[in-house]
Design brief:
The protein is built from seven helices and two strands; from the N terminus they run H-E-E-H-H-H-H-H-H. With 214 residues, it is mainly alpha-helical. The protein has a domain of 140 residues. A two-stranded antiparallel sheet has the order 1-2. The N terminus is likely disordered.
Length: 214
């Protein structure tokens, strides 16, 4: 029995020696793949392995009401981008004229002065409007109010007289518009005001000084 136990121990020793010499024993194996590098983050003082997952794209189909709201917003945004440069130029001229009017109490003097600026007004304000749609014209009237502090009816009445202003107001009525449109940047026209701010940031427009006719 002792001889058999001795033989088994010798066989185990030989097997262990064979594994060590052949390099197949796991403990003795070394190489470049022994250490795996991975990203990690420190969370509450502990180093935790981390991995960036691929992006997951979630698509949502708009319902009819949402599609209509988006189309309405895009239409308004396009109108503001198209008409604001016109309102800006017209507003600059009109505010300059209003400044001059402060030193002209007589209407005859004002009418004479208007004639000297009439060509400029037509070039910067009247002629480009022929390319605008009715909807864009409505937005433009609001923006002119914003840039001057006066609605279009007041401007026409002051420059061309009350009869002309009423005539233009009648024409505007047939086009489902209104020359007396107010501008309320905090409520009804908050979206327009936001879009104007967007245009000003994009093109570097500063705010201009407004001179009211009233």
């Amino acid at each position: 029995m002792k001889t058999r136990i001795s033989i088994l121990k010798n066989n185990r020793c030989l097997l262990l020696l064979f594994m060590l010499l052949s390099g197949k024993f796991v403990i003795a194996q070394t190489g470049a793949n022994d250490t795996l590098q991975t990203e990690a983050v420190i969370y509450e003082g502990e180093v935790v392995p981390a991995k960036t997952l691929q992006n997951v794209y979630i698509y949502y189909k708009f319902n009819e009401a949402q599609l209509n709201a988006r189309a309405k917003y895009n239409r308004l945004r396009n109108a503001v981008y198209v008409t604001y440069p016109y309102a800006r130029r017209a507003g600059t001229i009109m505010n300059d004229i209003n400044d001059k009017f402060l030193a002209m109490p007589k209407k005859s003097d004002r009418r004479s002065y208007i004639k000297t600026r009439e060509k400029e007004l037509k070039k910067e304000f009247t002629e480009p409007l022929t390319n605008l749609s009715v909807y864009q014209g409505k937005v433009l009237m609001k923006l002119i109010n914003r840039e001057t502090g006066n609605n279009c009816y007041e401007i026409i009445k002051e420059y061309r007289g009350g009869f002309t202003a009423r005539l233009y107001q009648t024409v505007a009525f047939f086009f489902n518009s209104n020359l007396k449109q107010p501008y309320d940047p905090s409520k009804d026209d908050a979206v327009i005001e936001k879009l104007v701010m967007e245009v000003q940031r994009m093109y570097g427009y500063p705010e201009i000084k407004k001179t009211s006719l009233l």
